[in-house]
Amino acid sequence: ALMAAAPLSMGLLTQAGPPAWHPASDELKEACRNAAYICKEEYGVDIASLAILFALAQREIPCTLLGMKSIEEVDRAMELAQRFAGLDPSLSTEEVL
Description:
Elements: E1 3-5, H1 26-43, H2 47-56, E2 63-65, H3 71-82, H4 93-96
Parallel strand pairs: 1-2
Helix pairs in contact: 2-3
């Protein structure tokens, strides 16, 4: 079975951004900051939530590992995961998201 890990790309796909030691290039970090800004300001969507939902919606990858550093992050991840409870398995990824 396949497993997905780090759908937030070690912080790249969050409003706060990655830690200073993150190995991504400055260009990639800037692109992710811009994407987070567009998601939030133009669409009212948190990029981290979008990334988690996308990872969880991949039916061919039944397991997604998330790293969380606070109770709030655990609670948010649980809220997002519960969106998938009881869904019709025949729905496409686009229909789920």
